[in-house]
């Protein structure tokens, strides 16, 4: 029966298949290829020297370094939370499990600007902890700590959201077998769980890193836009463009575009490795288990 359905799915009229293909390729060309080419064209509009001068400006170099630093700091926390949350959700039943899953999805539902305002109301001068922080000379907002906090908020669902369905599909059999053979908790994690989730974990890390480097709204609210201090690369692009330095703005934007392309390539590679591993696992199963 399934073979009949598959054949029917592949017997659509040729004109319909060509039309859908053309629409899909046209959409990709219009909304992905054209903007990317426009960024590169504007960045090199006045030649290589102007492009390199835009990137070599101290503010641009600081913005690039700050963006990389925030992403590097946020990733270990994303990994720790994602693994812990997915482990708890997929391996245990407890009260509040549905609430935890809902909270994990919360950053997807809240606008990044609103998230930035929330942390501004908590840590700002007139916020909940603002007076205490000012009294002890601790700066959260309009400083690096606040930018890291909001980046963590908007990125922490990615790793967990990749690992939860993967770990639920794998079940508990291998972990329980390891425990029955005398493995400790850490041995079970590093020798059984981690090898099984490594590609899903890497996939989530790539997505979280891409979001961390490209985040604008939440970081914009808590950064203070201090030139050469709290401007990440997306904020630097906005400021330079508003100053009518088109080449400098698009030169910086081309770095973000390059990072996006690298992320896309890594994402594609990880997806290919995941599919390859799944095919190998299915090939090793007995015939009756693959049906």
Describe the structure.
The protein has 291 residues and is mainly α. The radius of gyration is 24 Å and the shape is globular. The model has no long low-confidence stretch (mean pLDDT 86). The protein is built from 15 helices and no strands. α8 crosses α11.
Q: Descriptors for this entry?
A:
81% helix; 0% strand; mainly alpha; single chain; globular; 291 residues
Number of strands: 0
Number of helices: 15
Helix percentage: over 70%
* Mass-distribution shape: globular
Roughly what is the average pLDDT, rounded to an integer? 86
Uncertain runs with pLDDT below 50, 5 residues or more?
Answer: none
Helix and strand sequence:
HHHHHHHHHHHHHHH
Portion in beta strands: under 5%
**N/C terminus separation:** 14 Å
Q: How would a crystallographer describe the biggest sheet?
A: none
> Structural class, from secondary structure content?
mainly alpha
What is the C-alpha radius of gyration, as a whole number of Å?
24 Å
Q: What does this entry show, briefly?
A:
It contains 15 helices and no strands. By secondary structure, it is mainly α.
What is this structure's SSE topology?
Blueprint: H1 2-9, H2 14-43, H3 48-56, H4 58-91, H5 97-109, H6 112-123, H7 130-135, H8 144-155, H9 157-170, H10 173-180, H11 185-214, H12 217-223, H13 233-242, H14 246-284, H15 287-290
């Amino acid at each position: 029966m399934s073979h009949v359905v598959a054949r029917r799915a592949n017997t659509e009229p040729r004109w319909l298949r060509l039309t859908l293909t053309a629409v899909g390729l046209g959409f990709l060309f219009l909304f992905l290829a054209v903007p990317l080419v426009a960024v590169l064209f504007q960045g090199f509009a006045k030649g290589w020297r102007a492009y390199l001068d835009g990137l070599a400006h101290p503010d641009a170099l600081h913005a690039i370094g700050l963006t990389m630093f925030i992403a590097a700091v946020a990733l270990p926390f994303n990994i720790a939370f994602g693994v812990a949350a997915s482990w708890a959700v997929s391996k245990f039943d407890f009260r509040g499990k549905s609430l935890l899953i809902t909270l994990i999805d919360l950053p997807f539902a809240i606008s990044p600007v609103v998230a930035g305002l929330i942390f501004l109301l908590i840590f700002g001068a007139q916020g909940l902890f603002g007076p205490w922080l000012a009294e002890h000379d601790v700066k959260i907002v309009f400083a690096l700590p606040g930018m890291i906090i909001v980046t963590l908020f908007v990125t922490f669902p990615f790793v967990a959201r990749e690992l939860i369905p993967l770990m639920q599909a794998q079940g508990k059999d291998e972990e329980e077998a390891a425990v029955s053979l005398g493995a400790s908790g850490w041995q079970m994690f590093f020798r059984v769980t981690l090898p099984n989730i490594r590609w899903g974990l890497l996939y989530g890390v790539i997505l979280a890193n891409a979001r961390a480097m490209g985040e604008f709204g939440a970081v914009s609210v808590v950064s203070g836009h201090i030139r050469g201090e709290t401007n990440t690369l997306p904020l630097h692009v906005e400021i330079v463009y508003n100053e009518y330095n088109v080449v400098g703005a698009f030169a910086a934007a081309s770095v973000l575009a390059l990072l996006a392309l690298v992320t896309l390539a890594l994402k594609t590679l990880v997806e290919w490795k995941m599919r390859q591993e799944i095919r190998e696992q299915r090939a090793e199963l007995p015939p009756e288990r693959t049906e």
